[in-house]
Write a structure and sequence with these properties.
Layout: H1 2-11, H2 14-38, H3 40-48, E1 52-55, E2 64-68, H4 70-88, H5 96-118, E3 120-127, E4 131-147, E5 155-160, H6 161-165, E6 168-170, E7 177-185, E8 188-192, E9 212-216, E10 230-237, E11 244-249, E12 256-260, E13 263-289, E14 296-306, E15 314-319, E16 324-326, E17 329-336, E18 342-349, H7 355-382
Antiparallel strand pairs: 1-2, 3-18, 4-5, 4-13, 6-7, 7-10, 8-9, 10-11, 12-13, 13-14, 14-15, 16-17, 17-18
Helix pairs in contact: 2-3, 2-4, 4-5, 5-7
Length: about 400
């Protein structure tokens, strides 16, 4: 029991609060400096959306935790605030305003941590008349292994890019073959064989890889660019000899195809997809600019939501600061295609999106109660005595 009391005292101490806030300042400072060489998305993932900041040597053989990450600091601050609230504040009406303020801050911290852990950001690109039932991740990639035998439907087995980066052998119960990762490139450049100086060899024995060579590229640090993931894979049937190797890359729009056991298969590296239980169709897209300039003034999208069961199908217009909320997804008007032929919608799935609103309401009520209590007390003390 004494150990628990000491632990509770440490978790609720002001010293822990100061240390956590100082650690947050150091993390933000270090992360800001690291963006110069590592890029925004890498730093965001490794520093602010992690439990520990890891260091590894140039060989990458191992990783060592060197500093608490954003998730850990936020969690410690949340626990510190809750335990301090339980330990120090008396549950009386005179302290109700202060209690509500602290409870609102707890809701805000908890909501922020939940958002960081569980929210998903993606994009949906739609051209006029196009219908989609999925959005695509801006950073994460996947290998799509597609059975195209049935012309009416594609049977897709999606393999996350993180699995490709580990190399080795990939198997799945839906696939009658093994995929061997012969080489993997987090960022790469593709060139026609013989285009660069010196001797160049085809990247693969089948498909477009017979005409292309591949080289390693340094990870990009620019916000408006992303790494081009590529890999060379070998297909080995569960029964039979190898079919050879294929080059697959995010830089190639076409799929790499092969036949096996009367089935037609294709391979493609693409942005990770998040499928929806409904679909969106772009009816019209409007893009207005300021007169005499090319500066966007307003752009909006009119879409049809099609529910398979027809219960919630409707037409909705999306424009700046007027998002669409549907079945847990929020669609924001983010951009448009360069030729104005389509729209770009940012899709956010955040189970705790209401936490900031609830927190602000609770804090506001607490502030009003605390201010009113002090104001009435001051008014009573300032009231002059009645002289008979």
């Amino acid at each position: 029991m004494q150990i628990l009391n000491r632990l509770f005292g440490v978790l609720s101490s002001l010293r822990l609060t100061v240390i956590s806030i100082a650690a947050a300042f150091v993390l933000v400072f270090a992360g800001t400096l690291a963006q110069v060489h590592a890029g925004l998305y890498y730093v965001q993932e490794q520093y602010f959306q992690s439990w520990m900041v890891m260091w590894s040597p140039a060989s990458g053989a191992y990783k060592i935790p060197i500093f608490p990450g954003g998730h850990l600091i936020g969690a410690v601050l949340l626990i510190n605030l809750i335990t301090a609230h339980i330990r120090r504040f008396s549950w009386t009406w005179s302290k109700a305003g202060i209690q509500l303020i602290h409870f609102g801050l707890i809701v805000m911290l908890a909501g922020g941590l939940a958002t960081d852990l569980f929210s998903v950001n993606s994009y949906m690109r739609l051209r006029k008349g196009e219908t989609k039932n999925y959005s695509e991740d801006a950073i994460r990639m996947e290998l799509a292994v597609i059975d195209e035998t049935d012309a009416s439907i594609d049977q897709v087995t999606a393999i996350p890019g993180e699995v490709l980066s580990k190399g080795g052998e990939i198997t799945h119960e839906t696939l009658p073959f093994k995929i061997i990762i012969r080489s993997f490139f987090a960022n790469s450049k593709l060139r026609n064989v013989g285009q660069e100086q010196g001797t160049s060899l085809p990247a693969a024995s089948n498909g477009i890889g017979q005409r292309l060579s591949i080289t390693i590229a340094e990870p990009t640090t620019k916000i408006d660019e992303r790494d081009v993931m590529s890999a060379v894979v070998e297909i080995i049937p569960n029964k039979g000899a190898t079919l050879g190797t294929w080059l697959i890359s995010d830089a190639m729009a076409e799929r790499q195809e092969f036949d096996l056991e009367s089935h037609h298969w294709s391979l493609q590296i693409r942005p990770a997809r998040y499928y929806k239980p409904y679909s969106l169709t772009l009816q019209t897209f409007t893009h207005e600019v300021y007169p005499g300039t090319m500066t966007p003034k307003n752009f909006s999208s009119k879409v049809n939501i099609v529910d398979p069961e027809g219960k919630n199908s409707r037409q909705v217009e999306i424009w700046m600061n007027h998002p669409l909320r549907h079945e847990g997804d929020t669609y924001y008007q983010s951009g448009f295609e360069p030729d104005d032929s389509g729209t770009v919608l940012q899709v956010v799935r955040n189970p705790s999106y209401q936490a900031p609103y609830v927190s602000c309401i609770i804090v506001a009520i607490g502030l009003i109660m605390q201010f009113t209590r002090h104001l009435t007390g001051f008014a009573r003390r300032a009231k002059p005595p009645i002289v008979p």
